[in-house]
Every structure is written in structure tokens, then in C-alpha cells.
């Protein structure tokens, strides 16, 4: 009897957990996945620059290329009309599209500059610190203006 009761409780918990998630195929799910990849990539790169991780020039350069590719992706998953999903994006994303797109282009430009700086051989922290700072500043500018924290 106890096993049956525990099984029912476990099944109920799993069912409720499944209902609370974001559909990974929805625009919100798509952009959240991309932003998580961007965060993971930039955290690893920042860790190398700040001494939390050993600096590996090839891994950093690969991360720059990945971050640049990712920086072009999330914007297409912001529909023209604000969805009803629980998003951390402010309504300003949809109300101030020109500004939002301007900041998106700034991030794309900054990641492109980081890729160029990462092509210098041998790659050194001093070479990529400034361009990485610019990428981080572009992220922060958009978050400050358009994201609910």
C-alpha cells in the first residue's frame, strides 16, 4: 500500500513538473536556449581572462567564433507581438523595436570584433581583453534597457 501511495505521489510530481516548463520549440524557449549558450560560452571566456580558468588561446578563439554565431540568433525568436508566456523581456522590446534592434546590432558588431582580435597569434589576454569588455558591455546595455531582472 505504501509503495502504491509513493508511486502516485511521484507520478503527480513528475506530471506537475512537466506542465511548468517552457515549450522548447516556442519563441521563448528558442531564445532562452540561445541566451543560455551565450552565457555559458562568455562565462568560460571571461573565466580565462580573469584567471578562474587557465587561458587557452585556441579554446578562447573557438569560443569567440561560437559567441559571434550565437549573437546573431536570438533576435529572430522575438515575435512582432509580445507573447503571453512568462518572459523576462520588458514590454519595451516590442514598444521600442528600433532601439532593441540597434543594441542587437551593437552586440553582433562587438562579437565580430572579438573574433578578429582572437585571430592574432599567439593569442594573449591583453589582445582580447578590450574586445571582450566591449562584448560584455553590449550585453549589459541591452539587459539594462530591455530585461526584467
Describe the overall structure.
This protein has one domain: Four Helix Bundle (Hemerythrin (Met), subunit A) (Up-down Bundle), CATH 1.20.120.10. It is 70% helix and 0% strand. It has six helices and no strands. It starts with a helix and ends with a helix.
CATH superfamily: Cytochrome c/b562
Indicate the low-confidence ranges by residue numbers: 6-19
- Percent of residues in helical segments? 55-70%
- Return the string of H and E elements: HHHHHH
Q: What's the count of strands?
A: 0
Tally of domains: 1
**Rg, Cα atoms, Å:** 20 Å
Shape field: elongated
Average pLDDT: 87
Amino-to-carboxy terminus distance:
46 Å
Taking the sheet with the most strands, its summary is: none
* Distinct helical segment count: 6
Q: Find the structural class using helix and strand composition.
A: mainly alpha
Q: Which topology does CATH recognise?
A: Four Helix Bundle (Hemerythrin (Met), subunit A)
- CATH first level: Mainly Alpha
Second rung of CATH, namely the architecture = Up-down Bundle
